[in-house]
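Entry under discussion copied across for reference:
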Amino acid sequence: MTGAFWDDVSNDVQDPEFARAYAGEAIRIRTIDSLVNALNDAAEAEGLTRAEIARAAGMQAAAVRRLLTASTVNPTVSTLVEVAATLGFRVTLEKMTKSERLEITEPMRKAAA
């Protein structure tokens, strides 16, 4: 990537605290996007409406609609678990690849040292 913004980021990530915050935010966004996309795919595969998912999960329909359609969401783990269970899934931990650990884990640990 090129341009003034990426040049600034490239310089800023030399600071361990910035690198930690940047890595943490990057993985948070990626993980939430991945989970929400998977929930959307599961809902479509099951043929369930957002209202049906909400009723089954004991949630407000608007909350499920926001979770599955809003451009920015920050759901609780509890919400993700309940919606996933309604769709026949569970939320689990997955080990990062070596390259992800270098990109995410190492900057976070370096800042803590």
